[in-house]
Amino acid sequence: MSAAYATFGLAPAMRAGEVLANGDFQIHRDFVDFIVDGRPLLFQLSDLDAVSPLASDVPPAIFTAQVRSLLGETDAPLPGGRYVIYGCPECEDLACGAVTAVIEREGDDFIWREFAWQTEEAADLQLNGYHGIGPFRFRGDEYRAALDSLLPDEGGASPGARRRVLLIGARVAVLAKLAAALRTIGIGADITHGVVDVPADELRGYGAVAFGRAVPEEERAAVRRSFHHAGVDVAYVDGLAPIIPLLVAQIEHALDRSPVEQRRLTHLVAADGEAGVEVTSPCRVRLTAYRLDRLYRTHAHEVFDGHLAAGRHRIPLDARAVRGQSFVVARTSGSVLVEAMAR
Question: Are residues 14 and 69 in the same domain?
Fold first, then answer.
């Protein structure tokens, strides 16, 4: 085994939720990803729709148990000293498939080796091993410091707890539908007309504020002042159109706290009948166009769904899907970008 060291770190990440026009949905998950040699380990494995065991929506006791397990303070949950590194974002069933690895200590060092895709109690390395990935040797002090920083504080709250979204607008029916859609995919949402005199502790529960198009600038400024005076850093979303899946996508993007340089989807432009997309590693990308017709009915069109290599790509769009007032949403499993179609 090579004596060369890999660097170990952690960074916030998300599995993007989604609400489709037909009512289908997938759950939003916030988690902490493993950063190995400066890149998310998830990107180095393959284009998986998966999350680490360090998810923010698990109870504090379970979160703590996961951290201590990775620190080697408890027995491995799977035979052969294997640990789940990434699992199904919808459930905890191993039958859905998980990326596992052997984690062991050698002196002060921690070693991750023998990565595999596993659906049963025993891993078949010859058939399902990630050949060419690892082993990774981490310095013990760096490894422990990163994971120790995740342990709950004295109040029992795990870091990165799920934040809520505050919705402000004039169209109550749209806000109610949006709040219901967000709650369906696991994002808390509240509707209000203002936050003047709201205690700072309550404002700290929000990660984003979404304004409807009819909210006047003076009201927006008052909301920003309230959060600023409370010392709360939130993302502000200006709703592009009363299209629920589009607004959900905007809010998902606003809630993404992962470092920009560690995202898979980093750039989207939509103009002149095509979309420009940039990705940092090979992955599946889906483009959906939304538009309102003259009767304010919503139309959604899947305009692209395929795997792209790392780099910049220009993708032609169906002219019928982007005529009039239209918008393009780009998605990977962990990133969402939204742009209005420029004319």
Answer: yes
Report yes or no on whether pTM surpasses 0.70. yes
Instruction: Output the CA angle 66-71-74, nearest 5 degrees.
Output: 70
In tens, the pLDDT along 302-312 reads 999 999 999 99
297 and 239 share one domain: no
Question: What is the total count of domains within the chain?
Answer: 3
138 and 19 inside one domain: yes
Q: Is residue 154 part of a domain?
A: no
What is the mean predicted confidence (pLDDT) over 217-229?
91
Instruction: Encode pLDDT of 165-215 as tens digits.
Output: 999 988 889 999 999 999 999 899 999 877 777 888 888 889 999 999 889
